[in-house]
Specification:
Elements: E1 10-12, H1 21-39, E2 43-46, E3 54-55, E4 63-68, E5 72-75, H2 84-94, E6 102-109, E7 114-116, H3 128-140, E8 143-147, H4 148-154, E9 169-174, H5 184-187, E10 193-198, E11 208-209, E12 212-218, H6 226-235, E13 240-245, H7 247-255, E14 261-266, E15 275-276, E16 293-299, E17 302-308
Parallel strand pairs: 1-16, 6-13, 6-14, 8-9, 8-13, 9-10, 10-12
Antiparallel strand pairs: 2-3, 2-4, 4-5, 7-15, 11-12, 14-17, 16-17
Helix pairs in contact: 1-2
C-alpha cells in the first residue's frame, strides 16, 4: 500500500529495529530509572549504542532523552528522527520505579472486538509487528501475568526470544486449577514462574506445581484480589507488571482499576463471533463510561491504541490525543 499522507498522531513503530540505538536506549532507560529516581536529579542522555546511557549536558546536540525526578522520562528527539516513535511508545513504561510502579494491560483484537475464535484459535489475530511489541513489553517488565485460558489455548513460553532483553517473572492465574503441569511455563527453566490458584485448592505443604512456585490467592468464589496480587509483586521488586491476556484477565484488572495503561492492538480482521476482548459490568449511561486519553501507533498492518487510564478524561466532544481539536480537520487520511 502506498503511503499518501502522514499524521503525527499516528506514529509508525517498525519491525526489525530491536538491535538499533532506539531499542537499546529504551532498555537502558528502563534499567537505570530506579537509580535516577533515588538520585532525585534531572539528567540528560544521548542515544545508547550499548547497554548503558551516555550522559550529556542540557542542550547538547546529541541529547535524546531526559529524566525529570517528578515525572520520569521525556524524549527530546524530533518526530522526524527514525527512533522517535519506538522510544515514544515505551518511555512511559521505562519511567516506572518502586515509588511509582506501573501495570499495563494488552489485548490484540479483530475489528469486531474478538481476540480469538470460539475454539480459542488466536494465532495470529494481530501481525508480526505486534508480536514483537509483546516481546518488547516482556523485556521491559519485571513480571508478566496471563490467565489459564491463554496458557491452555497457546501454550506460550512468555519469554523475550524475539528481542534483546531479560525474561520477566511469569505469573499464571488459574483459580480453579484446570491446567495440567505439562505446559511449557511449568516445565522449562527459561524464567521463574508463579502459579496462582484458589486458596482452597492448594494442597497442604504444596510449594510447587511443576517447576512453578504455588501462590494461593483466589478466594472460594473464584475472585482474585487484584490489589493483593500487585502488592505481592511489588514486594518482590516488580515495578513494571504486564498483563498480557487474555480478555477475562485483562478485564478483571481493568474492572478492579488495577491498570495504569491499556494497549489495544486492532487488526483488519472480522471474526464474526468468538472470544471477546474487554468485558465489564454494563454502565447505565455513556456518561459513566471511561474515555481515556490515548496515543495511536501503527504496527505493520495493525493499529495500537496506547490508553493512559490515569490521565484526566478529555472534555465533552473531544476524542483524546488523536483528534477533535478545533485546529484539526474532522477527517484525516493516515495511509
Amino acid at each position: 500500500m502506498r503511503r499518501e499522507e502522514s499524521d503525527d498522531s499516528v506514529q509508525p513503530v517498525l519491525a526489525g529495529v530491536d538491535t538499533d540505538e532506539g531499542w537499546q536506549t529504551v532498555l537502558a532507560a528502563a534499567a537505570c530509572a530506579e537509580a535516577l529516581d533515588r538520585g532525585n536529579e534531572a539528567r540528560t542522555f544521548a542515544l545508547a549504542g550499548g547497554p548503558e546511557l551516555k550522559q550529556v549536558p542540557v542542550g547538547h546536540p546529541d541529547a535524546a532523552i531526559t529524566w525529570r525526578p517528578t515525572s520520569g522520562w521525556q524524549q527530546l528527539l524530533p518526530s522526524s528522527d527514525p527512533p522517535h516513535a519506538l522510544i515514544d511508545l515505551y518511555l512511559p513504561v521505562c519511567s516506572a520505579t518502586t515509588a511509582r510502579p506501573i501495570t499495563v494491560g494488552h489485548l490484540g483484537q479483530s475489528l469486531d472486538g474478538f481476540i480469538a475464535t470460539h475454539a480459542g484459535e488466536s494465532q495470529f489475530v494481530t501481525g508480526r509487528a505486534n508480536i514483537l511489541h509483546l516481546h518488547r513489553m516482556r523485556a521491559l517488565s519485571d513480571a508478566i501475568v496471563v490467565g489459564a485460558g491463554t496458557v491452555a489455548a497457546d501454550d506460550p513460553q512468555l519469554t523475550t526470544r524475539h528481542v534483546s532483553g531479560p525474561n520477566p517473572l511469569r505469573v499464571v492465574l488459574d483459580p480453579s486449577r484446570r491446567l495440567g503441569d505439562h505446559y511449557r511455563v511449568f516445565t522449562d527453566d527459561e524464567a521463574e514462574t508463579l502459579y496462582v490458584c484458589g486458596r482452597s485448592l492448594a494442597r497442604p505443604g504444596e510449594t510447587h506445581f511443576g517447576r512453578a512456585r504455588v501462590v494461593p490467592a483466589f478466594d472460594p468464589s473464584g475472585a482474585l484480589d487484584v490489589e493483593e496480587l500487585l502488592r505481592l509483586l511489588h514486594a518482590r521488586g516488580c515495578s513494571r507488571t504486564f498483563i498480557e491476556g487474555g480478555g477475562v484477565t485483562v478485564s478483571m484488572f481493568l474492572e478492579a482499576k488495577g491498570l495504569d495503561r491499556l494497549h489495544i492492538a486492532i487488526a483488519a480482521l472480522i471474526i464474526g463471533n468468538g472470544r471477546p476482548a474487554i468485558r465489564l459490568a454494563p454502565p447505565t449511561s455513556l456518561g459513566e463510561c471511561q474515555r481515556p486519553s490515548y496515543r495511536v501507533f501503527r504496527m505493520g498492518g495493525d493499529v495500537l491504541f496506547d490508553c493512559d487510564l490515569r490521565a484526566e478524561a478529555p472534555g465533552e466532544g473531544d476524542t483524546g490525543n488523536g483528534g477533535g481539536g478545533s485546529g484539526e480537520p474532522p477527517v484525516t487520511r493516515i495511509i
